[in-house]
Amino acid sequence: MAFETVIYEVKNNIGYITINRPKALNALSAQVLTELGQAVDIAGKDDTAKVIIITGAGGKAFVAGADIAAMEKMTATEAYDFAKLGQTTYNKVQDLPKIVIAAIDGFALGGGCELALACDIRVASSKSQIGIPEVTLGVFPGFAGTQRLPRLVGTGIAKEMLATARKVHADEAKEIGLVNYVTEESPMPKAEELAQKICKNSMSAVALGKRAMNEGMEMELKKAIEHEAALFAVAFTTEDQKEGMSAFLEKRPANFK
């Protein structure tokens, strides 16, 4: 499928989804969100793509936010529909049974920060700035930022970022757990290095482990532990479990498919 605002391609078992509006700093319109969701759907079904990297074109921004010009005249109903579109799209990213890495190079603001939060791992270049400055526009994050950010960095830091609208630079973002790695130059080599390490492992086990974490975070602890046990049992129905344990006992590398 050809897109106007998003590029999807696969190289060496890594699927790349690029937001491709560099002149607009990859700002999110309804079209971008729709096409991003479609690209994520394709990536989820693409067996040649074991890990997904999401990035922005142009080297200035991952995503600089939503398209304010398109939002200015929205009615409350239209704003609700726009928020639901963003939330639905980002839920697809979060729920993808593959690891999704955000490669952040430049601004990741508003909806861009929220997209990064929906990913599993975040790598940012040292020039990157991340934030949720929506209160300067008279609104607040509507693509699940008020929910995912405090779950990642804690409510104190999340509320400060919300209320002050300040941009967090890459090094501080790493200190507070907002990003996993900071790179001096492009984040892509590190993102690819991580993706290649992941590709060597069992994709079914990674998918089940990601599901256990995602779903367990929304449960009371004892229920989450029981849920983990149930998914752990599912792993023993897979060919990867048989191959992985046989390979270990035979002292050879596992050959996961």
Task: Kindly describe this structure.
The protein is of the alpha/beta class and 257 residues long. It has two domains: 6-199, 2-enoyl-CoA Hydratase, Chain A, domain 1 (Alpha-Beta Complex), CATH 3.90.226.10; 203-249, Lyase 2-enoyl-coa Hydratase, Chain  A, domain 2. Helices cover 49% and strands 16% of the residues. It has eleven helices and ten strands. It has helices spanning 30-45, 68-71, 76-95, 111-118, 145-153, 155-164, 170-175, 188-199, 203-216, 221-235, 239-249, and strands spanning 6-11, 14-19, 51-56, 61-63, 100-104, 107-109, 121-125, 129-131, 168-169, 181-183. Strands 1-2-3-5-7-10 form a six-stranded mixed sheet. A four-stranded mixed sheet has the order 4-6-8-9. It is globular, with a radius of gyration of 19 Å. The two termini are 26 Å apart. The mean pLDDT is 97.
What are the defining features of this structure?
257 residues; alpha/beta; 2-enoyl-CoA Hydratase, Chain A, domain 1; Lyase 2-enoyl-coa Hydratase, Chain  A, domain 2; 4-stranded mixed beta sheet; globular
List the helices and strands and how they pair.
Blueprint: E1 6-11, E2 14-19, H1 30-45, E3 51-56, E4 61-63, H2 68-71, H3 76-95, E5 100-104, E6 107-109, H4 111-118, E7 121-125, E8 129-131, H5 145-153, H6 155-164, E9 168-169, H7 170-175, E10 181-183, H8 188-199, H9 203-216, H10 221-235, H11 239-249
Parallel strand pairs: 2-3, 3-5, 4-6, 5-7, 6-8, 7-10
Antiparallel strand pairs: 1-2, 8-9
Helix pairs in contact: 1-3, 3-4, 4-5, 5-6, 9-10
